[in-house]
Amino acid sequence: MTHPTDMPRDPVRAALPIHLQTGLWLAELGLPVLPLREGKLPFGNCRTCTKSACGDRPNMKAAGPCQCPAPCHGWAAATTDPSVLTSPAWGRAWRQAGAVAYHPGGGGFTVVDLDDADAITWARQNLPATKTVPTTRGEHWIYRGAMQGANKVRPGIDIKSLAAYARWYDPGTGAITALPDDVRALATKDKPAPRPAAHSITAPTVAGGGECRHRSPAYLERGIAMAEQRIEEAPDGIHKTVYRMFLAVLSVHGRCGCLTDSHIGRLFKAAQEKGESLRHCEDAWTNARTTLGM
């Protein structure tokens, strides 16, 4: 497909929610799309699919709709099927949507997300020119060709392609060019060493390296389970809820050495299933640790 240029006016669709109109147009051009709620985040999984209870797409590595009719599973819900996009199950999401997103890799594209002026300056000096889309904080540079997405490949720079979504702003300007090796190389160099998948922490242990003062593993298990439940049941304000739960868990267990990678992974998973992005989870975790002086 060619990257979209100008959206045609269709009087038949004029009565539909504006974001659904945009989504249908992009889908017709071959870009898998999904609605975003306010805050540029996907809608959280429904009760049937929460905590991967539906058994679909383990670890969110594969795209495609599961049997659930709702727009679940974040980027993996993106579709070009107009019957799905206009279905009653998606109708509520479109009516509440604050923006439209698309799955770049699913359409054969890669987006270099430049978050600030310094990142834009670096790109202009080091990457081939291509189609450029202004964003709220910087620019999206769009290349033809897909690759594995990666966050924070350089300060202020993310790569969104496979297993990722990008917000749709407008068609942009300039001629789109083929994905260069310089962009592919960003995913493997010029970035900090990757964090462990389970997001381990380096909190100090109790004085003298003694045994955890909580004694019983059941105490920690109850705390993690309660945090998961409160994140899952948060009706709104998910950013604040995730931060508060991270802060609560760290304040009790962050310094005693009993908090494991598995526990932290459960908290991140609960937040992402509610619609939080990995970046927002990492930021909330870092902010909670900073607040506690860890």
Please explain how this structure is put together.
By secondary structure, the chain is an alpha+beta fold. The protein has nine helices and ten strands. A hairpin with a 2-residue loop joins strand 7 and strand 8. Helix 6 packs antiparallel against helix 7 and helix 6 packs parallel to helix 8.
Keywords:
four-stranded antiparallel β-sheet; six-stranded mixed β-sheet; 294 residues; alpha+beta; globular; 34% helix
Question: What can be said about the biggest beta sheet?
Answer: 6 strands, mixed
- Which ranges are low-confidence, i.e. pLDDT below 50, for 5 or more consecutive residues? 190-211
The end-to-end distance, rounded to whole angstroms, is: 49 Å
Helix content: 25-40%
* Secondary-structure element series: HEEHHEEHEEEEEEHHHHH
Question: How much is the radius of gyration in Å?
Answer: 21 Å
**Helix and strand composition category:** alpha+beta
In terms of DSSP E residues, the strand content is: 5-15%
Round the mean pLDDT to the nearest integer and report it. 80
Give the overall shape: globular
Tally of separate helices: 9
Number of strands: 10
Break the fold down into its secondary structure elements and pairings.
Layout: H1 18-28, E1 33-37, E2 41-42, H2 82-85, H3 88-96, E3 99-102, E4 109-114, H4 117-126, E5 131-134, E6 139-144, E7 150-154, E8 157-160, E9 166-167, E10 177-178, H5 181-186, H6 217-233, H7 238-253, H8 261-273, H9 278-291
Parallel strand pairs: 6-10
Antiparallel strand pairs: 1-2, 1-3, 3-9, 4-6, 4-8, 5-6, 7-8
